[in-house]
Amino acid sequence: MIKTAIGDALMSFGWMFTASTLGIATAVVAEYFGVDEESKLIHAIFTGIIMVHIVFCEGMTVALGGASFNPTANAAMYAAGIGDDTLLSMAVRFPAQVIYT
């Protein structure tokens, strides 16, 4: 349970740290491909960067043994009775997830 909470804290920190760079990454990729910032293609570039970000973070959650960066997903799964979480594990994991948000 503590190992998962530490993984949750690491994932939450990583998610917030990298999410703050998505706008800059979009501008860099758009400039590389010569896309004007007023173009509608900028939305496709941003969507692609978000997709890569989510896929990368999901891979990291698997590598960290089921850690999560999204406390809402854990609460919803617990309320639905899906997963291994107990009320005690939720009480330990939730603060670790929200500390960096």
From TrEMBL:
GO molecular function (one): water channel activity
Top-level taxonomic group: Eukaryota
Ranges in a coiled coil: none
UniProt keyword annotation of DNA damage present: no
Hydrolase keyword on record: no
Transmembrane parts of this sequence: 12-35, 41-64
Record keywords, A-Z: Membrane, Repeat, Transmembrane, Transmembrane helix, Transport
Name of the protein described by the UniProt record: Aquaporin
